[in-house]
Amino acid sequence: MRPLPHFVQIALTLMVAVASALLCRWLRTPIPWMLGPLLGVAACSIFGAPMRSSGYLRNAGQWIIGAALGLYFTAEVGQLVVSLWWAIVLGIFWALALGYGFGLWLQRRSAADLPALSARDLRATTYFAGAIGGASEMALMADRNHARTDLVAASHSLRLVMVVVCLPFGMQWFQSHWGLHVNSSLLPGPRLLLWPGIFYLAMATCAGALFMRAIKRNNPWFMGPLLVAMGLTLSGIQWTAISSEMSNMAQLFIGISLGVRFKREFVRTAPKWLLSVAMGTLGMILASVVFGWALAWGTGLHPATLILGTSPGGIAEMAITAKVLELGAPVVTAFQVCRLIAVLLIVAPLYQWVAVPEQADRAAAKP
Asked: What residues make up the domain containing 252?
């Protein structure tokens, strides 16, 4: 049987995603326009349906979300974020320590299950699989150090999806039982969609994305629009808001891009490895809840904001959760962006500084 053309697969995936989003909306799940497509597309893909994500649509989703988050950074919010520099630094150290511990957990759990890997390759695989960074960046670093990139990518995909699913439901439960009242000053500046302001914002943020792409930065279609919109808002320029319909569409595209990672082959990829990743991820989520709560006590911010800001999830996904549930999106974004930059800069040198000497010491200790 001939495979369906790419555009037919994309159209089919979009239909599944929209139906899943509407179902989740009817069920009143949190962030239905991202969780619905993620879970619906993943389920269909695992069962063999030809699900396909479009890179153009994924970029458009990141573009819209990046621009929307940048609109939160009013002058008042900017002062708040700057005053939290010490908490952001603590969050960076927390992420590095958490990822390092997760990597050690995976190494101890998987040593007997992956006998084909040498001690060095196993350490590289578990180290980069545990680091809390982007899946593509960590897989690239892992490949440079002769690790199993398929296991690294699987670890990050499963971790990200578990965090994206667990935390919004946890926040929704907390909200229904205890209430969540976050500082109203953390809401975005512009509130109405205006013309031609939306055109000016689109052109400016697109230029930011193309510039970031030209200098080969990570996540250019998210980081470029975010930085441009942030700079405009901090300068007092508020051309327009971004409508909820546009935000929902962007969430749908991002949800699809996460869901298509899960194919039938994914389930067959070292089941014990995936079980270890799942167990370790749950442990990291619980530890991050405790850490976020303690950091909230020290900063005076709401625990929900700091839990999302220090969670082992992705920037866009955690920021979307904070945006939709109104849980301090700019603070969450600042924490997640600073953490990502630090991890990308530090993880590889840290591996050479810590993990490689560990391997040498272990080899020397052998009789």
From this structure: 61-258+266-365
